């Protein structure tokens, strides 16, 4: 059986790499990688809005700041409830 979309193999490979990444990276490098992913998502959203449409919006920065502040306060006052953060981020 032949796979019709070769992108599927790339996506599965990238997913497996991301699953195994915490086993091989130190804590500092893992946090640095997470920061890079978060900022790249913010940059992609800003590029989509400002780069393609030409609309300057400060809403992205406000939502990013509100999310960062919420996660920081949850970590400060409820440090052991990490799954609550994941649930809030997913919602």
TrEMBL record:
It is a multi-pass membrane protein. It comes from the Archaea. The chain crosses the membrane at residues 9-25, 31-50. One of its GO terms (cellular component) is plasma membrane. It is found in: Cell membrane. One of its GO terms (molecular function) is branched-chain amino acid transmembrane transporter activity. InterPro entries: ABC_transp_permease, LivM-like. Keywords: Cell membrane, Membrane, Transmembrane, Transmembrane helix. It holds the Pfam family BPD_transp_2. This is Branched-chain amino acid ABC transporter permease. The lineage of its organism: Archaea, Thermoproteota.
